[in-house]
Design goal:
With 919 residues, the protein is α+β, with helices and mostly antiparallel strands. It folds into 5 domains: 2-39; 148-478, no CATH class; 487-615; 627-742 and 750-774, Jelly Rolls, CATH 2.60.120; 787-917, abc- transporter (atp binding component) like domain (Coagulation Factor XIII, Chain A, domain 1). Helices cover 38% and strands 20% of the residues. Strand 24 and strand 25 form a beta hairpin.
Length: 919
């Protein structure tokens, strides 16, 4: 083929350069070349395979091929819009040196977002780049989906021909790998990387050739394709790259035996894998480092949900247009696929014809192909996930009084790095079908050999196999699509000058986020939030803060200060938000968002069937307060009114987002209570090493106000993380259940918050009724202290319940102590009340936390606040009486030295101010 191409080029150059004017010289030369190519059997069969795969794709994906610009392939609830946006953004980033693929400036307004996970799929972006340059974003995406079917078939066709030496076998194997059901399910879900699997049979083909006939050119081509395949999706490394590599090398080893181990062959393999690693690691390393630990933002729950149901291997799609009408679907199809969403990850049916051919090939060629059989079986078992699921239900078994679930091998793999955050074992069905396609190729090769002398029968059998397999692999027809329309509202906004952001509501809602991303391809303005694959940690503070300004509160009050309507509009303008865009598709339960936007910003400026755009006034006043408080969506319960104040329950972890217009030093002050016995509340702030650093830790002792040590607010977003040490305890006697709620439950099926079923998944650790930042100059005299006493205790604060008393009344002083070492019962806190002339008139001596908690049980590094009561003697004359506090050791009475320049330090005491005794 290469000699013919060289001959054609030579003929053209000879005619043009040397001035050969014979009529039709160039045309005759090209014609002879084309005829020579057409008469080559390998080319004819390749063209036949290409035609079959193309026509089948056009039919199965109808109407997508005929509406490339007006629809997007896949269900609206899936990720198709995300990948349309990704291809569009990759074009911007790859063609504009000033942009970065992983640094997304148009999302998460106003901060942008660093998202290294985007680099792990750069292979998809590079493959699509010619299409994104030439066509609209929707057409580019649809083109990638359609080509994925065709190219997967062609790549497997060439691999099948290489392995079996039979073109019919390659044609069947390629058809199976092009259209197997699990891939179609991923198209429904808009999972472009899971559809882009044609690199893997191509890689296996090149690796097979590189092993059989080592050479540097083949090795370089193999390394390039391996690198590209590894950069389609990071989980492909584990689910496809590793098993395909191992199976291909083992198959070659079985065939070649001792001849496999030569220096030239091993050197070729070293070149392949070494070069691929050098290409891939810079793109994957930032994300692989994020995979360490369960707290990675890449972790998502749902591994059991995304595991294959055992019965899914035995049922086609529940929505098959033919089998369903003929009543040929098994009765358990509805249990396996409860709805169309379940098809996205759950389809695993290999097809009777494909499986039959695979078994036939395995039986006839078992010594050559057993490795592919093992790969198919292992991948199928692992795709079942960590727990066995049958008919939509987890399988349980009981031994005597013990009941357990059936744990599968994937449960062990789940403990390995990278796989520990992998939540989609069902995608291993792609590996299963890869192996089945190869086995089916061998099966078809055996049939071809048996029917070699009956070509017509063989051709009829081949046709029947292709048509039958195609019918089995239909999931839904016509294929579901989402609209690619850009609503008129967005077109009007796009025509306006300006670069302000758009805030789409209601959010966070996946449907709204996905459409907002897609609309950005036509209106390239920044958007608030914007979800793409995962949520990096810097997104929630900004998205929840800004979206909270334009969405109604669930209650009239809260535990943090909240701006009024004019204040919210002022903050939106401060953050350069031009429009709040309400999505009418989310009407109904979210209709209040429309009404609230109208109340907040006035009538909409643009409105159509899909959207309503509310402009933020350009002349909005500046925010009155320098602080904007937002409580995270995670960890906080809905505000509840208790008497004259509002309360919020906190579970294991929660976050406070505090935006400040200026840099300022101060402390976080909060009033908190607990129905548990001395829970420990820790407060963290983000650290320089991207790990939270502990700001303070408090032992909660009844309802009190606690003040953190000083912290510097940055100009911008500040995040405070509240954490309950040891996790939240499930409180069975939740005080909110002490009502008639248990006696007179609601008539609906709604779950009672205090019911045992709810308490299994929630906890009630702490309850807050006030959270506020206090600048340093606004702290009271007794707050914000940090007086060191003998490097063993720190006096962190004090508070007087009253500053004026009458003789005979009790004086209450609340002391906040931090234990810096493990204390003992020898430590005694004293509070002295002195007369104006310095005479001791009243005192309090007790362990550091009174009688509430043994000092030895006080966790070092935590602050414990407790009240101290002092009886004021009768007959005291009026005047100001100083208060002193200190610590001594019993029985030596030796005071801990006060290691700070505060009043009273010379006597190893700390002056707390004075109390006035009234006459």
């Amino acid at each position: 083929m290469s000699l013919l191409r060289v001959g054609a080029l030579y003929g053209i150059l000879h005619s043009v350069v040397l001035g050969k004017r014979a009529e039709g010289g160039i045309i005759k030369t090209m014609s002879r070349t084309i005829k020579g190519l057409i008469h080559r059997p390998d080319l004819r069969w390749s063209l036949l395979a290409l035609s079959i795969y193309t026509v089948t794709t056009l039919v199965m994906m109808y109407p997508v091929p005929f509406r490339l610009n007006s629809v997007v392939a896949g269900e609206g609830y899936g990720d198709a819009y995300q990948y349309v946006w990704q291809l569009w953004w990759a074009r911007q980033a790859l063609l504009d040196p000033g942009k970065g693929l992983a640094h997304i400036t148009l999302m998460n307004h106003p901060a942008g977002v660093d998202h290294p996970f985007m680099l792990t799929m750069i292979g998809v972006d590079l493959l699509a780049l010619p299409f994104t340059v030439l066509f609209s974003p929707a057409a580019a995406y649809n083109g990638q989906i359609l080509l994925a079917f065709i190219l997967s078939g062609m790549a497997m066709y060439w691999l099948g021909v290489e392995l079996t030496g039979d073109r019919r076998a390659g044609l069947v194997g390629g058809f199976i790998f092009a259209f197997f059901l699990n891939k179609t399910g991923h198209v429904l879900g808009g999972h472009l990387p899971q559809v882009t699997v044609y690199c893997f049979p191509l890689y296996a083909l090149l690796l097979w050739r590189a092993v059989r006939k080592p050479g540097w050119s083949t090795a370089l081509a193999t390394a390039f394709v391996l690198a590209l395949a590894s950069l389609i999706h990071v989980m492909h490394l584990v689910y496809l790259v590793l098993p395909v590599t191992a199976a291909t090398l083992l198959a070659a080893l079985v065939e070649m035996r001792g001849a496999f181990f030569t220096w030239r062959r091993l050197g070729s393999l070293a070149l392949i894998f070494g070069l691929a690693v050098l290409i891939v690691v810079p793109f994957l390393l930032p994300t692989l480092l994020e995979f360490v630990g369960d707290d990675s933002y890449l972790y998502k729950a749902g591994v059991v949900k995304s595991s294959t149901d055992l019965l899914a291997f035995f049922t086609p799609s529940r929505y098959h247009p033919v089998l369903g009408r003929l009543g040929l679907l098994p009765p358990f199809a509805e249990q396996v696929f409860a709805d169309r969403v379940a098809l996205c990850e759950g389809l695993a049916y290999p097809g009777i014809l494909a499986l039959g051919l695979a078994v036939w090939g395995l039986v006839r060629q078992r010594r050559r192909v057993w490795i592919w059989g093992v790969l198919a079986l292992m991948a199928a078992v692992l795709s079942l996930g960590p727990l066995l699921k049958v008919g939509g239900e987890l399988v349980r078994y009981q031994v005597e009084v013990y009941q357990s679930l059936v744990v599968l091998p994937y449960g062990l793999l789940k403990q390995m790095p990278v796989l520990e955050v992998g939540r989609t074992p069902g995608r291993l069905n792609e590996t299963t079908m890869f192996a089945i396609a190869i086995l089916a190729s061998y099966g078809m090769a055996e049939l071809s050999a048996l029917l070699a002398r009956r070509p017509r029968l063989l051709a009829s059998l081949l046709t029947a196999l292709l048509i039958g397999t195609g019918l089995e692999y239909i999931s839904i027809w016509p294929f579901p699509t989402s609209t690619a329309e850009i609503p008129p509202v967005l077109q009007r906004i796009a025509s306006e000058p300006g670069h302000g952001a758009l805030l789409h509501i209601p959010m966070p809602r996946k449907a709204v986020d996905n459409r907002a991303l897609y609309y950005q391809t036509a209106v390239p303005r920044p958007i608030v939030r914007g979800y793409i694959h995962r949520t990096p940690p810097e997104v929630p503070p900004w998205s929840e803060t800004l979206s909270g300004l334009a969405q109604p509160d669930q209650t009239a009050g809260d535990v943090v200060p909240r701006p009024d309507l004019s204040g919210r509009a002022a903050w939106l303008r401060y953050f350069d938000v031009d429009y709040v865009v309400f999505h009418k598709y989310e009407a109904g339960a979210y209709a209040s968002n429309y009404d609230y936007a109208r109340m907040l910003l006035g009538p909409s400026k643009y409105e159509d069937h899909a959207l309503a755009a509310f402009p933020v006034p350009v002349d909005a006043l500046s925010p009155e307060s320098p602080y904007l408080y937002t409580l995270s969506d995670r960890g906080w319960e809905t505000p509840e009114q208790d008497g004259g104040f509002w309360r919020r329950w906190m579970c294991d972890d929660s976050w406070l987002y505090l935006y400040s217009t200026q840099e300022e030093v101060g402390s976080l002050s909060f009033t908190v209570d607990s129905y548990l016995e001395f829970p420990v509340l820790e407060v963290y702030v983000p650290g320089a090493a991207e790990e939270d650093q502990r700001l303070d830790s408090f032992v909660i002792n009844g309802r009190m106000t606690y003040t953190t040590r000083p912290v510097t607010l940055t100009q911008g977003m500040n995040v405070f993380h509240f954490h309950t040490r040891g996790g939240g305890t499930r409180v069975l006697d939740d005080p909110r259940c002490w009502s008639r709620a248990l006696i007179d439950p609601p008539a609906s099926d709604a779950l009672l918050l205090c019911s045992p079923e709810a308490l299994r998944t929630t906890c009630r650790t702490l309850v807050f009724d006030r959270v506020v930042f206090v600048p340093h100059q606004g702290l009271s005299e007794g707050d914000g202290l940090n007086v060191n006493l003998g490097d063993q205790m720190h006096l962190r604060g004090w508070r007087l319940e009253a500053t004026e008393l009458h003789p005979g009344e009790a004086l209450t002083v609340t002391l906040a102590w931090e234990a810096t070492v493990a204390l003992s019962d020898q430590h005694v806190v004293f509070v002295h009340m002195l007369s104006p002339d310095g005479t001791l008139v009243a005192q309090h001596d007790a362990p550091p936390v009174g009688r509430l908690l043994p000092a030895s049980a006080w966790p070092p590094g935590t602050v414990f606040s407790y009240p101290v009561a002092i009886e004021v003697p009768d007959g005291l004359p009026a005047g100001d009486y100083p208060l002193l506090v200190g610590v001594y050791l019993w029985p030596s009475l030796e005071r801990l030295p006060v290691l700070a320049g505060v009043p009273g330090a010379e006597a190893n005491t700390v002056e707390l101010g004075s109390v006035r005794i009234a006459p």
